[in-house]
Amino acid sequence: MARLDGRVALVTGGLRGIGQAIAARFCAEGATVVITDLDAPDSEAVAAALAALGGQARYVAGNVTSEDDWARIAADLQSAHGGCHILVNNAGIDLTGAVETLSLEAWRRIMAINVDGVFLGTRALVPLLAESGGAVAGGASIINVSSIMGIVGYSEVSAYNASKGAVRLFTKGIAIEFAQKKMPIRANSLHPGFVKTPLLSAGFQRWVDKGFAEKPEDLVGAMEAATPIGRLAEPDELAGPAVFLASADASYMTGAELVIDGGWTAQ
Amino acid sequence: MAGRLDGKVALVTGGTSGIGAGAARRLAAEGARVVFTGSKAEIGEALAREIGGRFVSHRVEDAAGWPALIDTVLGEFGRLDIAFANAGTEQGDANIEQVSIETWDRLIAINQTGVMLTVQHAIRAMARNAGATGSIIINSSMNAARPLGNYVTYSTTKAAVVALAKSAAVYCGQAKYRIRVNAILPGVVETDMIRHIMQSQEDPVAVRAIYEGMAPLNRMAQVDEVAGLVAYLASDEAAFLSGAEITIDGATTAGMMGV
């Protein structure tokens, strides 16, 4: 028996990187998966993603910063699938630069996507999760994708640090709240280290453009050398932890943080 | 789910009761061949028959006995892939003002030196695997993060082994071993030991309510729930997880304990 049989999952930012890998593993474990992202439903990226996920997945366009979009997504989950058991708040962006050079506009944008998005998604789906969670072993599961940058600071990453730190403690707050109110929803945060995603590649390219390195490969090499396991993570290595947190096996895990960084923050 | 640990060999210290026994059962159910240790031979042999595993009478703090234990594992099963450094006790512990040096030394020997010996011997054995692979899981406690006033030695040792897990994880990386080392920090788990403690109190119902009330989830963890985390960390699904401390406490330490 697959571990997520009969469960409905929503994964934001599901077209690429970690979100895509989590969606794929959820499908393989038997879940019905709805992915959201910004791309138009008839775009090539959506067609390719759905083809890769097989018949158990659907795409719903949605902006995580939009209350209206979240209301529409919640209504869709209710009407098409009768509820929702797993919410993965994965969509996110990064922002780097010396703090004195950051624009308020850029600061507000990263907070809107990385923090408001997690809050709005949680708020919109809690009624569904509370309802659906009572019917599955271990209850419903919210998995918020934070980062090791939500635990340790890093030079010229202050805005991203702040946004991911907010996700970390937001998760603990709602975990306690749901538990005390006996709502069948667990909430935990994932803290990936350096993962081979389009987001990381784009970030490395920006550092090259700023003259921090000659080419992105040099930055990859430096990151690998700084990671005790000696390599970057594949996106799929974030999917196993997400399946675990979503499954009945994690029934006593709530308010916890799962750091998946190859030992980076253990040093 | 069955078969996730097929072909792997596991060692569980303190495996005759509580979380250790639960983990031994779960690891075996997922396909691992399990060797477990303890000092209660009769119970150990019965569990070995139940799970098709191997019991070895050994106290975790017995440094001189470790080479023979590892010889048994490698001699009978050929390899070691998973080690659960679980053996530990809070028996006789007290507060900082009253704890005796004998109690302090005994608990340090079991909870801290015993874990060090487990990790050390496990790494030496796992380094012999092709690609030097393995997963080591240390059973710490949420009291590493929220120390108890009346259990100074227990709290201290449980915090110490989190640092030990991280140091060993970083070392394994430096040595180019693909051996992962992680610590788990359970909240109150409803083991036979906890049941015994509750039953020996004047008002067992009230004591149970105190234990349950520590977690916002308002219940204790079941042994199987911790065993599920151990099995996950033992599996290849946790391939990028090393040096981590993983709380499994029903949100007890997500906020302030008991609030």
From TrEMBL, chain A:
InterPro entries the UniProt entry points to: KR_dom (IPR057326), NAD(P)-bd_dom_sf (IPR036291), Sc_DH/Rdtase_CS (IPR020904), SDR_fam (IPR002347)
Q: What Gene Ontology molecular function terms does this protein carry?
A: glucose 1-dehydrogenase [NAD(P)+] activity
Top-rank taxon, per record: Bacteria
Cross-referenced SMART domains: PKS_KR
Keyword flag Metal-binding: no
What EC identifiers does the entry list? 1.1.1.47
Q: Which UniProt keywords apply?
A: Oxidoreductase
Q: Which residues form the Ketoreductase domain?
A: 7-151
Task: Keyword check for Oxidoreductase, yes or no.
Answer: yes
Concerning its family, UniProt says: Belongs to the short-chain dehydrogenases/reductases (SDR) family.
Q: Under which name does UniProt file this protein?
A: Glucose 1-dehydrogenase
UniProtKB/TrEMBL annotation, chain B:
Quote the PROSITE patterns the UniProt record gives.
ADH_SHORT
Q: Which SUPFAM superfamilies match?
A: NAD(P)-binding Rossmann-fold domains (SSF51735)
Kindly give the Pfam families that the UniProt entry links to this protein. adh_short_C2 (PF13561)
In the UniProt record, does the keyword Oxidoreductase occur?
A: yes
Keyword tags: Oxidoreductase
Q: Which family does it belong to?
A: Belongs to the short-chain dehydrogenases/reductases (SDR) family.
Q: What is this protein called?
A: SDR family oxidoreductase
Naturally occurring in which organism (per UniProt): Sphingomonas echinoides
